[in-house]
Write a structure and sequence with these properties.
The chain has 651 residues and is an alpha+beta fold. Helix content is 27%, strand content 30%. A 4-stranded antiparallel β-sheet has the order 15-38-37-36, with no helix packed on it. Helix 8 crosses helix 11, helix 9 packs antiparallel against helix 10 and helix 9 runs parallel beside helix 11. The longest helix is centred in the middle third of the chain and has 51 residues. It is flat and about 105 Å long. The two termini are 34 Å apart.
């Protein structure tokens, strides 16, 4: 167990006072406290292997395990649960696929176990070890031992035990004990105070962890003091960065949950409308039709229940993620406000672990649509078992579409090969889930595929076209050969106008009704009519692809210098990415968690960067990728290889 509700088998530190905090729940009267204090609030029997939660409430191991398995069975993935007693949310960053095993990760409440075994103990345990019998007057909650008055006195004075909580036996029996959460952080392996921080493992540790010959931190190179590690977190604004990242996840999950609630209301309206319609249709029919009416309403009820259950399950999963993110934010806020460096350090890295767990979870939304297939010939009613077929169609969508957690080569895919295509550089998903591909030939074309990847339209008469982008009901196509931008209707693909640029134009993006065009040696910003408003200097002479991120950055790749550079709207360089394993970087893309994705043609891989330019992952064995485009609603990625083959991956 770790601090403030985070549990992980990977962590190696425990608050020493956690075993005693079950007394927070002891609020019963004096005449019944002794009995109720040792009763599990779930089974109302004496505790059997009591496990203590971070909220300081204890439950039998089997009771807690059954409870967790029960509340977790309705959602996938599950990130935590609420305490059965106080309903505080408890995130879990361990084995999410086996919630029935979570209970064993929580520590046994040794003090409570001892009270269950010997509730009326009268003699001092320390004296009994010396074959002496002295009446017990106190009980050490940290050692789970009864103590006499003299042993209590020296127990409180001894260096190793002076921080222990010792209370009077009579206080235990009246159930009037309440303690603050302990703030002494110790290594669970050596029970020593946390003094160091291992940057290699991102884990606090004690002196013995770093100094003993068999310690896993002994050979680590990045071991520093807790003070220096805390100073680093503060000076580099790590807490605020992590807080912003988690709040972004929370906002996405909240929006997704609101979408589910809206869909649930729409679903209810659909059922109401269908029911009224059915009542009207059955009004004048015979008794036989009345029987079919009842059957049909039963089908509607079953479909309604099935649809509600699916949406409830999805909403519960999203709420679970929201609760986890909120709890993570609370811990980060505590770290920001605390003056205790150990508390700051551990809260930060625990929050970071939880944030990483959130990003790896494949959150999905469901959209349920009610359809009906009515029979066309009413005279056949007597031979029909039901009037209308009821069905609920469900479509899953990723809430967090994080390419850094995906493995493209191992998922199903299919290819689209065009013999007439000479050289594809770019492609993009349009608003109606169709896909547009540009053939950069002397007599080039823009090819439109529908959502089943069948060719539906072709725009011809383009001289060296390079890139296409959609703005509302218009398509903007850059044409290098004519140094212009051609504008077409996004509905019937008829040409609307030409925007002369007098520059060799390549990649194009649109933001806030402004065009951003890559021109090899610079990036030009214009309005939608082509009037130049700004010009950005770029490094090198081969900058033909660009991306406008949700963070307000302008990112461009240079396929000769093998660099990816991000600049601000003021033209200042924010970050630059180079990697010896990235050769010939081409098209850029952004996923839903603001990672920047780079198709590296010559190195046969795809690089995934954070929104601050940090290397996250390389997806290898992608043959000469020219671009990667993602459609979160359809859960697919489209990758162009060898400039003429489209690989569509289902993710």
């Amino acid at each position: 167990m770790t601090l403030n509700g985070f549990i992980s088998s990977k962590q190696a530190f425990l608050p020493v006072d956690i075993k005693c905090e079950f007394f927070k729940m002891a609020t019963v009267s004096a005449d019944s406290a002794t009995g109720n204090l040792i009763l599990c609030s779930i089974c109302v029997e004496k505790y059997k292997t009591p496990r203590c939660l971070p909220c300081m409430h204890s439950f039998c191991h089997n009771c807690l395990s059954t409870y967790i398995a029960s509340v977790c069975k309705s959602t996938e993935p599950r990130l935590g649960f609420k305490c059965p007693l106080c309903r505080e949310y408890i995130p879990f960053t361990g084995a999410n696929d086996k919630p029935e095993e979570w209970a064993k990760v929580f520590p046994v409440n040794v003090a409570l176990q001892r009270l269950v075994e010997k509730p009326d103990e009268r003699f001092c345990d320390a004296c009994l070890r010396d074959n002496e019998t002295e009446n017990a007057t106190g009980f050490c909650l940290s050692c789970a031992e009864y103590l006499c008055a003299l042993c209590t006195k020296y127990h409180r004075k001894h260096l190793l035990s002076k921080g222990h909580t010792v209370c009077q036996v009579e206080e235990i029996r009246t159930g009037e004990i309440t303690h603050e959460f302990g703030k002494y952080y110790r290594c669970s392996e050596h029970n020593e105070s946390i003094k160091l921080f291992c940057g290699d493992h991102e884990q606090p540790c004690c002196l013995m962890c770093a100094g003993t010959c068999r310690s896993k931190h002994r050979k680590c190179e990045n071991v520093d003091t807790v003070h220096n590690a805390a100073v680093y977190l503060r000076e580099n604004d790590k807490l605020n960065v992590l807080l912003k990242e988690v709040r972004n996840i929370e906002n996405k999950l909240t929006e997704a949950k609101q979408e589910q609630e809206k869909n649930m209301a729409e679903l209810e309206d659909s059922f109401d409308e269908m029911t009224k319609k059915t009542e009207q249709e059955f009004k004048d029919l015979t008794e036989h039709i009345k029987k079919m009416k009842n059957k049909h309403l039963e089908d509607i009820a079953v479909a309604q229940k099935r649809g509600r259950e699916k949406l409830d399950q999805c909403a519960s999963t999203l709420e679970d993620g929201i609760n986890c993110a909120k709890k993570c934010c609370q811990n980060i806020e505590k770290a920001r406000k605390t003056m205790d460096e150990r508390e700051l350090l551990m809260n930060y890295y625990l929050a970071k672990d939880t944030a990483s767990q959130l990003k790896q979870c494949s959150f999905r939304t469901k959209h349920i649509k009610v359809t009906e297939n009515k029979a066309s010939i009413l005279k056949e009613l007597k031979d029909m078992e039901s009037l209308i077929d009821i069905d609920c169609t469900t479509t899953d969508h990723h809430v967090i579409y994080n390419l850094s957690t995906m493995q493209l080569p191992i998922v199903p895919k299919f290819r689209i090969e065009e013999e007439s295509v000479v050289s594809i550089y770019t492609g993009t998903f349009l608003s109606n889930d169709t896909f547009a591909v540009i053939d950069h030939a002397f007599e080039g074309q823009c090819i439109i595929y529908d959502n089943a990847w069948a060719k539906t339209n072709v725009i011809n008469g383009l001289y060296r076209p390079f890139c296409v982008v959609q703005n509302l009901d218009e398509l903007f196509v850059t044409c290098t050969g004519t140094m212009s931008i051609k504008v077409y209707s996004a509905t019937d693909f008829q040409k609307l106008r030409t925007i002369p640029m007098n520059e060799s134009v390549y990649g194009i993006q649109i933001r806030n009704r402004a065009l951003y065009v890559a021109c090899a040696t610079k990036i030009i910003k214009t309005d939608l009519s082509g009037n130049k408003t700004k010009e950005f200097e770029t490094e090198g002479k081969n900058n033909i692809h660009l991306l406008l991120t949700n963070k307000g950055l302008i990112v461009y790749s240079n396929w000769v210098l093998d660099t990816v550079t991000a600049i601000s709207e003021d033209g200042d360089i924010i970050w630059k990415y180079e990697n010896e394993n990235m050769k010939d970087p081409f098209e850029l893309e952004e996923d839903s968690v603001n990672n920047v994705v780079v198709a590296a043609k010559k190195s046969n891989n795809i690089h995934v960067l954070s929104n601050v330019g940090e290397h996250l992952k390389v997806i290898e064995n992608i043959t000469q990728p020219v671009f990667i485009k993602m459609n979160e609603r359809m859960n697919i990625c489209c990758v162009c290889s060898n400039r003429n083959v489209l690989n569509v991956y289902r993710v």
